């Protein structure tokens, strides 16, 4: 006998939006971290 569970996509929409917001916030922090200039101590050694 097959069992089928009906999933209402509108019930899970809130969780999907929370995951999306968390991902975007973390992505913004990652981009800022990668684009930040090197500290002055490290720049002096590279010149």
Question: What would your notes on this structure say?
Answer:
The structure is a single chain. This protein has 47 residues and is mainly alpha-helical. It has helices at 13-35, 40-46. The radius of gyration is 22 Å and the shape is rod-shaped. The N and C termini lie far apart (73 Å). The mean pLDDT is 83.
The main sheet comes to: none
What would you report as the Rg, rounded to the nearest angstrom? 22 Å
Helix percentage? 55-70%
Number of extended strands: 0
Mean pLDDT: 83
Beta fraction of the residues? under 5%
Q: Sketch the topology as an H/E string, one letter per element.
A: HH
Which outline best applies? rod-shaped
Low-confidence stretches: none
Main structural class: mainly alpha
Distance between the termini: 73 Å
Number of helical elements: 2
């Amino acid at each position: 006998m097959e069992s089928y569970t009906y999933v209402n996509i509108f019930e899970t929409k809130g969780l999907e939006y929370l995951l999306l917001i968390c991902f975007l916030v973390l992505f913004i922090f990652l981009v800022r971290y990668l684009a930040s200039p090197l500290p002055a101590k490290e720049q002096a050694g590279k010149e």
